[in-house]
Amino acid sequence: MSIPRKAGVFGMGISTGSFGEQVAAMxxxxxxxxxSYVCCxxxxxxxxxxxDPEFMAxxxxxxIATADGMPILYSLNRFNNLKxxxxxxxxxxxxxxxxxxxxxxxxxxxGGQPHVLEKIVQRAAVDFPKLKIAGTWSPPFxxxxxxxxxEEVDRIVASGAHIVLVRLGCPKQxxxxxxxxxxxxxxxxxxxxxxLLYAGVDKRAPRWMRKAxxxxxxxxxxxxxxxxxRYILTNTAFIWMVxxxxxxxxxxxxxxx
Length: 257
Fold this sequence. Notes:
Blueprint: E1 6-9, E2 12-15, H1 19-31, E3 36-41, H2 43-51, H3 53-60, E4 64-67, H4 70-80, H5 89-103, E5 106-111, H6 114-127, E6 132-137, H7 146-159, E7 163-167, H8 172-180, E8 187-190, H9 194-199, H10 207-211, H11 215-222, H12 224-256
Parallel strand pairs: 3-4, 3-8, 5-6, 5-7, 7-8
Antiparallel strand pairs: 1-2
Helix pairs in contact: 1-5, 2-3, 2-12, 11-12
């Protein structure tokens, strides 16, 4: 089965191809009930992977790894001479649901709080009236037991879902999807905060801020206590990493001189 090729950046393989091509690939995986998973890569995920080789293997084990964050997209394009477009989880969720409705595929919602799941189902019934929601599940916030994980597998398998939209937070959702590959006969998409946006619980940054790579600043202003460490410290470390890559060719050239 054809899936998008990947290009390397900071040790990660990021899928290439247009937004539509990547959505189509996910739909093909779901239609075939192929056990697979999709990571939407942003700066937070990148830095988590750089700090943890095991998690890096999880990200690189994804069948599709999209350029979710603008800084990741910028780096991917600059260091690979590409013109890749952004494939963000916030945009993927409604696009995949629309494509699933068109193709007659069913969707399972895994993660998030019950009231958020309820709002998603209610909105989807209006936006995509023919879309089948195979099931929903709000896992406990504590670590789950082996028996509970088996029950999760059984629940999704019994639902017959083609696509599983996952919201457990990074890196938990990516680890969960990797552990379920080969067990859950569906394509799993780690879309994170897209659940809250689609449910209307959160608001997205204005388009101009997204294009200017300032979506993080918008979210930081909304939740400073929860996000300050992730965005201030993590983004600063990422910026230094980017500059380090930019300076490498110059350093080599200087040595050659």
